[in-house]
Amino acid sequence: MVLQQLKWNYRLIRKKNHLQEMKVVFIYAYAKIIS
């Protein structure tokens, strides 16, 4: 049960980090287009 909880939290954290990475990449590409 605890292991399942940890696994779920890990997945949630990874998803958040992935969104953060996507945001960074998007901002970088956007800056490239503008300049």
Q: Overview of this structure, please?
A:
The protein has 35 residues and is an all-alpha fold. It has one domain (1-35). 94% of the residues lie in helices and 0% in strands. It has one helix and no strands. The mean pLDDT is 91.
The tally of domains stands at: 1
Order of helices and strands: H
User: What structural class do the secondary elements suggest?
Assistant: mainly alpha
Q: Helix content range of the residues, please?
A: over 70%
Percent of residues in beta strands = under 5%
Specify the overall morphology.
Answer: rod-shaped
Please give the radius of gyration in angstroms.
Answer: 15 Å
- The overall pLDDT, averaged over residues, is 91
What is the β-strand count?
0
Distance between the termini: 52 Å
Unreliable segments of 5+ consecutive residues: none
For the largest beta-sheet, the strand count, sense and barrel status come to: none
User: How many helix segments?
Assistant: 1
Offer a concise description of the structure:
This protein is mostly helical. It has 1 helix and no strands.
